[in-house]
Amino acid sequence: MIKRNLCAKIAGLLLLSILPTQDILTQNIVTIFGQEKIEKTDEGEVFYNFRNGFLLPGGTNPGTLFNGQDMIAWMYATGNFITPKAGAVIGYSYPNMDSQVEDAYLKWLAGSKGEKSMELLPQWTWAVMEADSAGLFKRPEMRSAFLYTSYESPKEQIALLETTGGTRTYVNGMPREGDHYDFGYTLTPVKLKKGLNEFVYTPGRFGKVTSKLVKPEKAIMFTKRDMTIPDIIIGEDNSKWAAIRVINAQEKPLQGLTIRATLPDGKQEEYKTQDIMALSVRKLRYKIPAIGNSGSEGKVIVKIELLDKSGKVIDQTNVEVRQVLPSVHHERTFVSRIDGSVQYYSVAPAIRKNPEETKAMVLTVHGAGVEARNQARAYKSKDWTDIIAATNRRPYGFNWEEWGRIDGLEVLEEAKRIFKPDESKIYLTGHSMGGHGSWFLGTTYPDKFAAVAPSAGYPDIASYGRGRGDDMHDKNSTYNAFKRGGNGGRVISLAKNLKQSGVYIFHGDADSVVSPSNARRMREVLGKFHPDFCYYEYPGGEHWFGDHSVDWHPIFEFFSRHSIPQAKDVKEMDFYTASPAISPTDYWLKVEQQIKPFDLSNVQVRLNNDTIHVLKIDNVAMLVLDIPSLMLGNEQVTVNISGQALPVPSNRKAILALENDKWQIKNEVNLKHKYSGRYGGFKNAYDNNVVFVYPTKGTVKENEWYQNKARFDAETFYYRGNGSIDVIPDTEYSIAKFPDRNVIVYGNKDNNRVWPLLLKNSPIQVAKGVITIGGKTFSGDDLGTYFIYPHPGSNTASVGVVAGTGDAGMLATSPNNYISGITGFPDLMIYRADMLKDGLTGMEAAGYFDNDWTLTSQDF
User: Fold this and answer.
1) Per-residue confidence (pLDDT) for residue 117, from 0 to 100
2) Which is nearest to 744 in space by CA: 726, 724, 761, 764?
3) Residues pairing with 273 in the sheet
4) Where residue 34 falls among pLDDT bands split at 50, 70, 90?
5) Are residues 611 and 701 in the same domain?
6) pLDDT one-digit tens code per residue, 750-774
7) What is the distance between the alpha carbons of residues 604 and 584, in angstroms, rounded to a whole number?
């Protein structure tokens, strides 16, 4: 194999055969009947449409649980990016190349550079690419190709970059969020420099890109793209949450903003909303006044005004809102605890004779690309149950994992608060991606649902969506940490949790989108242990065969025969969890700590009179038994566990900790250690009303880059998760100002002022040129790291770190695949910039903290 130090010396990449070519990136002039056409958007005037560029097929090797290779990100990080020209060839080595290619590569590096050597090398060539008459760059290979365009600006100016298609866009080397689902939401304020400005679009889902530059009509303004609007419910006298995006196309933040909403009858409500960082678009929350019983069904125009801190109106617009009776299908909103954003859910309400009637509740989770409002409207109202459609925070969202999982739970709790259902009659169903969501949520939270009905679903997305990058990593031992990080989605491993719930599997036997083999596999799995499941393949049914693809009467009949028992009536449990961070609880049993984080844990218990028998316990370091909920009436309960008989008073919870291979009774859970409320997994830092903090104490380049990185992550969280995140400089952060909130620290201890405040005692320290971790030292300016650590001023909050040791390491943190529903990020990872081109061979360390947040066991 090629030695690492050799690859490092040559940087693994050379640009060859740069052929001279004329500059084809000239501005297009669109005319109609000899007259120049001025194209406008609601936000301003289009002054440039990108129509010419270069395409680079290959160079990316995506994975499911961990990102593979990203050649463009690597080139920017290591200073190897060169403005492309037609025919410019890029060649670099993959890790684990075969001996013939390796030999050719070494000869080529030594100076032979012969044709035979070049033919054997992996290589990619920049090719001329032109958009069609509609400005669309489209070719089949663009699903795995980079697109380059440029613009020669006559002056320094601020513009809005409007793109569709690419996953992200590098603007003069800075990453910004793209629009890979073609939502049409992306408006990115960018500062163009005088002269050449370069744009590189990374591959998108649909293999196409459009891009244009817009001169903003105002520096500060509303945009009505992608609003979150509730229905006004007649008879309800509380105001409703809504959200609208505000563009800040200036180089200073907007603070002290208020949004005023006015109804036609003059009712107003003012709300002091969130701040917006410089050169950013943020979705801000506000409130629409209540109407009580005075309204009638129909459309209502609400006047929305944006006020600065002095009360001056900066911008205004009108928003159309539906006013409906509570008996019709409608939308409701709430504020998410993840980031303070406004989310919506849809309701197919039960038929009620009076508003106080108690009904059942069905949570339905939608498929990829489906809005919750459309999901709800596929169901006819029932006389016995409300049907609640969660959003997954977006139509594609997070595959119902990670933040999509949290959204489902938040919606369920909010809907329970509003509708007050029979708590024993809660059910779960979903279609396609929502079929996976049903399998995943049903296995993860077995005590929350009386019955589960996946339709046209697949159980495990890691096998369903496996990419080339996964194959590339399989032989690397570091990959185990990422596999463990993704264990929460391994439905097959958790399937025995479903034994507690009824299961109805529904699939079309002619489904060409999600093969019925997925349903048949789960039928086989359940058939080995489950006493209460139904299976039906709809004859001739494709992926969607009408509303009865979800609104299937036998499913609802099956649901009606199932109930969730009270904790006191549950005598046996066989509970599996991948992590207390995801699913710690099953009725009166709770896993607070694991021996090996994110490995599968299993607890089997049986209650017999006044004795709890723990029949099996694997990978559990702390177990809590809620004995009072059993209402036994005895003064004392005995817990038999691993050959020990431990007496516990029946009026208190039994907190059992494994110490030196013996189980001990504890008085309390140590909240400074790992526990279910703050456990780990890097992605869990992006939760709990998180705030992003970028540095101001570094070099000009560091400060600018980390500020942009924080902005980019906030844009990604907005795009993928309808998010709205506070992004602030380190000079504005204090624990008192942001109590009990998670924090993402961008930068290291030499450039971010909050490091000594939040990370002084962390066993991982990142400084210029060096990272120390658990007694080990890694040196170089090309090191990057992500890790999570407990917030020192809180028992619930966490701190996430995105940092580099130098320019190369800093830029190597640019990909943010941790904002994804299915990637498996452990507690910590340290890597070289070469990871972006070589995959996990560039990883120095990846793994998990101990339960006391040290690295004594060195589980990495």
Assistant:
1) 42
2) 726
3) none
4) very low
5) no
6) 999 999 999 999 999 999 999 999 8
7) 14
378, 638, 783 from 366: Cα distances, Å = 11, 45, 40
708 and 830 co-located in one domain: yes
Q: Is residue 8 part of a domain?
A: yes
Strand order in the sheet with 654-659: 585-586, 589-593, 622-625, 654-659, 662-666
Assess whether 30 and 154 both reside in one domain.
Answer: yes
On whether both 644 and 691 belong to a single domain, the answer is no
**In 559-592, which positions are buried (b, 16+ CB within 10 angstroms) versus exposed (e)?**
bbebbbeebeebeebbbbbbbbbbbbbbbbbbbb
CATH of the domain at 843: 3.30.379
231-247 as b/e: b if 16+ CB within 10 A: bbbbebeebbbbbbbbb
Does residue 469 belong to any structural domain of this protein?
A: no
**Are 662 and 689 in the same domain?**
no
Domain that holds residue 770: 682-847
Band (pLDDT 50/70/90 cuts) for residue 304 is very high
Q: How far apart are CA 584 and CA 402, in angstroms?
A: 15
The per-residue pLDDT for range 331-363, each reduced to its tens digit, is: 999 999 999 999 999 999 999 999 889 999 999
- 707 and 660 part of one domain: no
Q: Is 726 helix (H, G, I), strand (E, B) or coil?
A: strand
Round to whole Å and give the CA distance between 764 and 78. Answer: 24
- Asked, for residue 466, whether it belongs to a domain, the answer is no
Domain co-membership, 112 together with 211:
yes
- Provide the pLDDT for residue 38: 77
Percent of residues, the chain, with pLDDT higher than 70? 91
Total Cβ atoms within 10 A of residue 193: 12
pTM above 0.85, yes or no: yes
Task: Please check the confidence at residue 17 and state whether its pLDDT lies above 80.
Answer: no
pLDDT of res. 296: 83
Structure tokens at 761: 């005692």
Please tell me the distance from the alpha carbon of residue 431 to that of residue 506, in angstroms, as a whole number: 9
Q: What is the pLDDT of residues 670-712, one digit of tens each?
A: 999 999 999 999 999 999 999 999 999 999 999 999 999 999 9
CA separation for the pair 157, 707 (Å, rounded): 19
Concatenate the DSSP letters of all residues of 360-428 into one string.
EEEEEEPPTT--HHHHHHTS---SSEEEEE--TTSSSTTTTSTHHHHHHHHHHHHHHHHH---TT-EEE
* H or E stretch at 92: strand 89-92
